[in-house]
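dude i think i finally got it to work??
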Amino acid sequence: MIKFSSYNRIKRYIKRHAFAFLFGNGFKKFGKKVSMINPDIIEGEQYICLSDNVSFGAQAWLLALKQDNQEPKLVIEEGVTVGRFSHIVAIKEVVIEKNVLIADKVYISDNLHSYEDINTPIINQKILFKSNVIIGENSWIGENVSIIGAKIGKHSVIGSNSVVNSDIPDYSIAVGSPARVIKKYDFKDKIWKKV
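look at this
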């Protein structure tokens, strides 16, 4: 009798290979053992680099949007795991470094919708670049987090439901809306300390 977990592994294996065979060549880079199961929307894949052992949960939405002749750059480095219902958008640069763990329903973007012209619907206004996004290696991004035009240092933790709109240093734990640092790693005492 086959176990459900074995059935899921077989199903994921088949879907991963089918996706790579059918669509992998359309990406700027499509590494070994990339796993994209049932993505929802992928646009601008010619500007998207997925390195080895990158894994996405179901219903991912990836967008690399060329605007004003600026080629976008969406880079996801080795060993990154992204949960279900992720939404990642780059109009200039979004980089997720090695071994980052991202939970479900996370939004990552280097831009905002313009809303200044009250005589034009927001949907028809220009998308504005805010700032490059870099998520440092070995970090953990909790569920329902939004990261908009901000850098997150390496080996940092962003608590669930946080909104990150300014930079977070290396070895930090940040929570809230807007996110603020509540702990930093103390290398002398080798513990996380409240700040």
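The longest strand covers residues 179-186.
im so relieved honestly
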